[in-house]
Amino acid sequence: MMLASELALAGVKVCILERLKETTPYSRALTVHPRTLELFDLRGIKPKFMERGRPVSRGHFAGLETPLDFSVLDSASNYTLIIPQSETEKLLEAWAGSLGVEIRREVEAVSIRQHPDRVNIETEGPGGAAKLSAAYVVGADGGRSLVRKEAGIPFEGTSETFTTVLGDVSLSGLPPMSAISSYSERGLVAILPIDPTTYRVLLGDPARMSVPKEEPVTLEELRSGLERVLGNDYGISKPRWLSRFGNATRQAGRYRKGRIFLAGDAAHIHFPAGGQGMNVGIQDAVNLGWKLAAAIQGRAPDWLLDSYHAERFPVGTALLRNTEVQTLMFELSPRMVELRSLMAGLLRFPDANRMVSEQIAAFNVRYESDAESPSHPLGGQRAAELELKLADGTACRSYEFFHNGQFVLLQLDVEEGMPFGELWPGSEHVRVVNASLTKANPDWSGVRAALVRPDGYVAWAVAQSDPAPRDSVARGMSRWMKF
Ligand SMILES: Cc1cc2nc3c(=O)[nH]c(=O)nc-3n(C[C@H](O)[C@H](O)[C@H](O)COP(=O)(O)OP(=O)(O)OC[C@H]3O[C@@H](n4cnc5c(N)ncnc54)[C@H](O)[C@@H]3O)c2cc1C
Fold first, then answer.
1. Measured between alpha carbons, how far is 47 from 10 in angstroms, rounded to an integer?
2. Does ligand 1 lie within 6 Å of residue 103's CB atom?
3. Is the CB of 32 under 6 A from ligand 1?
4. Architecture of the CATH domain 2-159+249-361
């Protein structure tokens, strides 16, 4: 949904094939983390999510007793939004629909064949079999991705070695909106409020962790597990959804093969520790959308499409490592009790807490700076939101300029008649902004011009001290787009 919206925003004709008739009411994800919220903010859709979700400034790593503190992050989105995935999907679907994306529901892709100039897709649905042809196909079709299999892209990693249980239920024995997190040699339990009447219970009961994922969960299994691990079943009743999930960990060997791309769970699966999978998938989509749109519209330099794999594959690998470390820390042993206590102690140090919080928030993502663009420490970094004053005196936030999915060429403290806009022919895909900073930001001090990508990362920047700023800006612009 996110990728299709990004493409439609850039004016690309896009069609989603979805085999489900409607959004599933069962929400795996409950968290939208800070960087994803920033991406929604960049597109102007964050307020809709805020209306339906509940911001919390705390997160967790491996369920350690010291919480992560997102409130210290340098962002207007310095919290996690608790919002069921079904709501997130509905909001994104509504946005996609408003941008003219065609969504064909109850249509299943059954065959994908790549040719030098197109990709052919065969589908099945209520109207029977059909054939489609597209310039590109993106497999955002989950962990069992047909697109990935049809493209012959390997999905390497490890199979499930344990499972845990999830239940969205009522708990009469807990005050509304209270939470529990418990780790001991008897097992693991996390209880989170979804709304005033529904709790999510996550249970790792050592007696049941070798049960295969496919075996259905019963309310009695969850009830007796709570009793065994916590000594209390908290009056569990009214199951809305019961499910079992495991720790299979795999990553696609490549995110692009010719005209086929992979994003989200089709590219990476892992144990859902820290609530990151959907977030990273949405971030994949925002990385790919503007690149694919530029390629389709003939605006992309030759290297741009391959930068999707180059940038997002390492982020996926880091996600798998971070969830594997958390999984390791769920091991139920006396040694692990000691290690967890040590780690919880370390997280009380603000710098350590911030480091791990940035990882879960995806604020630690930094792409390699482009060697052929003007060199500056900001190159490849997440563009934090800046408070600006425009040349006409208007105060504004830098994220407002990204609503249309354009590049933003930010020219800071440029005197009248000195801007760099005339150095290239101009484009509807680049917004030129002349402004000054109204709130100091050490990373941006001394910057004369910067090109910020549509996904909110800095392509390059030119310092005030650059002896030939016009040449640098011209070089930077022609490196990133064809006019
Ligand atoms: C218990 C649990 C809790 C989680 N909690 C969080 C969390 O708090 N935060 C977080 O960020 N992540 C969380 N995750 C992970 C998150 O749910 C997934 O990463 C996310 O759903 C992946 O999105 P996706 O769009 O890539 O794939 P999916 O959600 O799997 O969507 C793929 C879609 O493709 C459709 N499809 C598949 N094949 C075809 C086909 N051949 N033709 C047509 N349609 C097809 C499917 O019907 C489906 O709608 C959790 C996961 C689990 C199991």
1. 22
2. no
3. no
4. 3-Layer(bba) Sandwich (3.50)
